[in-house]
Automatic annotation (TrEMBL):
Its EC number is 3.4.-.-. Residues 1-22 form the signal peptide. GO terms for biological process: proteolysis. It catalyses: an L-aminoacyl-L-amino acid + H2O = 2 an L-alpha-amino acid. The keyword Hydrolase applies. This is Dipeptidase. Keywords: Dipeptidase, Hydrolase, Protease, Signal. The keyword Protease applies. GO terms for molecular function: cysteine-type exopeptidase activity; dipeptidase activity. Belongs to the peptidase C69 family.
Amino acid sequence: MNYYIRNLFLAIVLLVSTNTMAQDKSDWQNGVPEGCTTVTVGKLATIDGSVITSHTDDSHRTRAWMDVTPSKKYNKGSKFALYERSAYDSLAMPTYQHKKIGEIDQVEKTYQFFNTAYPCINEKQLAIGESTFGGREELFSKECLIDCQRLQQLMLERCTTAREAIQLADELLIKYGWRDYGECLTIADKKEVWHFEVVGPGKGKVGAVWVAQRVPDNHISVNANASTIKEINLEDKEHFMASKNIYSVAKENGWWKEGDVFKWNYAYAPKSRLSLASRRREWRVLSMAAPSLKLDANDKDYPFSVQPDEKITMDKLVEIFKDYYEGTPYNFVKNIKQADKDGKEELSPFANPFMPYDMNRLFRVNGGWGELGERTIARWYTMYATIIQCRDWLPDEVGGIVWLAQDNVATSIYIPVYAGTTDLAESYKVKARRTGYTRKSAWWAFNRLGTLTAQRWGDMRHDVDTVFVPLQKQYFEEQANIDKEVAKMSKKKRKEFLTKRSIQLGNEVVDKAWEIGDGLWTKYDEKF
């Protein structure tokens, strides 16, 4: 009897702790966020003058479907609903549920936006990337209402510039509060790109503490699940903004004292700087852009941004996001070797950087992240990825481009979804994680291809690249002609043309992904 009473008690304790916990952490590993990478580039650092932000939605739970939410008009008294996200495991695959916790006043008119799991661009070329850095646990407050995904949506529905979006965030968070852990939003418009880092106000309080730093126009920057903003100069309004309580909260909690140098990241997110899973990605992105700096892969801190050795191209960004440290000492599967026909040791074709964590233990691989290996830029659990160009010399409808890839970008391809695109191919809108495997889903096409390719990575990846690398090059090269062609059209015709193109290329790459996957099954039968 005591056995059952004890277990009932434990079950109740677990239920209570689960229902009263802070924002869900089920995507975190080893107590730290292991999610998204975002790279930003100023307009003078890109080959064509684009302002760029980006995002890899690295998650084991976020939704795999997406669509376009049109602009809307609302009646007076309409409300915008706010939700709390928590793990949900009662469907075909792990996902999230969103429980309504409040609402705020809706505005009279909202802008159209691309509704990805983390909404990413609106019709005015305002674009957002995202990366969680956690921050101090005690800053989370259940009295607050606005989380990351909802804040991104509010920014895109209501704003046209990055500065306007940051100002809106300040106004909303003062009134309704930040109900999330530390986040970095990388907010771009046609002129500039900012990193907006935000944490909660503290237990039992309503509000937020935040800082924003502009990426210099001739620089590239990165956030990889660690806070990167350090010293700030609020007199330099061209490059810094912050909440009014940025110093007082740090001072009250003993995280900083007057007279000392104030560093945002060490005041509000010091543990994030301990994560090699983050720092290694920072090193890799900045080093690939500016190898002349010879940055140390084991440093604790890197510059907030750097000037690239050469102007950044879309090809370069694709290369960065596909990276998994091959050719460096941090390729953590480099010791999975075998003898060739001449007895010479070589990397096994089965060695791949996209093994699930249980396989790391099986092959006894280790890295800067312990038994999890190295936290590379490309990941096997990416849901989708975006590289977003904002271009001020073109009409908004075509000037803003979300280059969109599904699943692991190392075996995927980016298609253009424009600021003026009003619909997507049907396969992108399938709620695939809710229903399980289906050939109707774009995400499943690329998820299957990525998972299959990883089984014999040394060989199969070349089969994928043979198809996707030239096709990606074609899409990038075609865009120059698209720009010229649609600039001459009326706004209505422009939207129709761009929507048709997004749907056409979406269908094309999904068909290719299924086709390549089927070919791999045949070609490598009995070899994996």
